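Minutes, project check-in
Item: structure for the 213-residue chain
Input as provided by the requester:
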Amino acid sequence: MMILALLAQKGGCGKSTLARALAVAALQEQRRTVLVDADPQETVVKWARRRTFPAPTVVAVEGRSLADVLDQVESARPDLVIIDTPPHLRAVVSVAAARANAALLPCRPTPEDLEALGDTADLVRDRPAGIVFNGVPAKGGALTLARAGVAALNLPCAPVAVIERVSHPYASAEGLTVLEREPGSKAAAEITDLWAWVRDSLLAAPERIKIPA
């Protein structure tokens, strides 16, 4: 069993959208997948209520400790657990980072998001982690500038960026992801490529050895 945490201490970066999409991508490879919604807004839980399919399994933290919820989920031995973390609640984000085998840090290509990324990156120095740029404008040089802006963090960036497209909110409104609603679209291709990178570069990587200070 592997645990992937989506981490960002700034809101609005699209963690929930990516968590859902990656969970469905894993399901399409026949991986038993659980989504843990650790955000008090319960965006993933509400999406699951709109969804007509029983999978992926969605578990809300609902006032419990994230550690206890993960213990319960792990006892069922799914293939993959994806944690959608809240912004601002550093204690919850820290637990998710500590329990995860790998971490994905979504980031919009804005100065505010880039400035907030450093604190999150510090939480994942001892395990495989990478940055994905999400909600990227289809035109302009924002992505090039953003990649340059995170170079000092010494974390790999996903080779695919997720472009800001209306396909994602349309799919969400139906309890779906773009992989299901528009499987042949550019939006779906981006998610497929992102999942392949997460699977092969982060989840397949050996956990980094902690070096004593």
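Outcome recorded: The CA atoms of residues 136 and 163 lie 5 Å apart.
No further action items on this chain.
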